[in-house]
Amino acid sequence: MSQKFLLPERVRRELEDYLVREHGIKDVDFKIERASTNGDNFSSDIYRVIVISGENENCNSPEQSPRSKVQPFRFILKTSPTVEIRRQMFNTTKQFFYEHYMYTVVLPALRAFQLQRLPEHEIFDNYPKMISGTLDFMQEYIVLEDMSTKGFGNVNRSTPLKFEECEAVFKALAKLHAVSFAYKDQNPSELKKLVEPLEEIVFKTPLQEDFDNFLRHKIVVAITTLNENEEHIKGPILEFQKIFGKSMIECTSEKTHAAILHGDCWISNLLFRKEDTPPKLDITFLDWQIGRYGTPIIDLSYFIFCCTDNELRKRLPELLEIYYQALAQRISALGTDANVAFPYATFKSHVKKYMKFGFGMALMSLHTISCDPNEMPDVTDVLDNIEDFGEFNKIANMLSERSAYKERMAGVCRDIVEFGYV
């Protein structure tokens, strides 16, 4: 980070009000530090705000001063960039609107729906609590609870996930997706109203020429990771190049059997917490700024092709079965017939037709995901100083020369063809 970040006065006031209102803490002092790993965030800047001192109004102990009784409250602050080209590249205004809408409208509605049908400990609530936020132009921000205080943490971005972790993510996604299918069955007009603002902001018609060229170039780079004798893999991928953009639009346009999705389901947007009694792995989903309404395969494919290696994907059919069984059970628990809402045959059809979405996302992002953050230029500095998209693309090309990318990308290319998804 090229310069020290100061806590905006508005955020300071809101956090002070929150601490007094919810915890009886006043006269606080804050410390702020960078909270994301280099390369994790492009459309926003993430900070951790730590309460380092304050007075507890509820402290009546004569042995301790009120200020010494304050527990270490921590928050996550997500702020919007002010550099215009960066805002344009990542559609900052829309992304902050979507994330704010997801936290303040969509997720609370899904929570309320579930609580009418399930015990609270069984519902999908795998996301941090939103404390405050604003959509004021050029000043957008969101303050969230810091899930590290509950034992959640990131895993190494460049290390492919293990089966146990993938299974936990697929089951958590099943819980999320199931709510929409039951909601649509039981209150279709309300769900329609709820998802109406969730328009696609990345793959939409008409596809801009420079973006389309960017996508086609990613195929050119990916092909170089394959061996000379792998023409049976290169052929289908070169055919996909002709329809890359169109295919991604097709994937995001499916609304007949659709669910509210996380929409940006990759490793840096996931937190894990392992519990021993009973043994389980809990998942928290971060960054809801590309909340989508579409086929569940968007979340599944994005995750599986960007966060795993070819050895793990040998068990992809098993993971898909685990997902569907968890989905069907949860839809039924919410009071809807899963065989009607999202039949198994339809699910299999969606897998065959839409898993290519994950291939597209791997083509766009695997150079970053597979890279050790310490080996990358400071992404924030780069984005705040570039003059056009071409400069950012040069960095992507540089990262694509690394052996880790080549190995991961070659594996994705082979799997996407051998599974018959392209």
Automatic annotation (TrEMBL):
Ranges where the CHK kinase-like domain occurs: 142-333
Listed name of the protein: CHK kinase-like domain-containing protein
Organism of provenance: Hermetia illucens
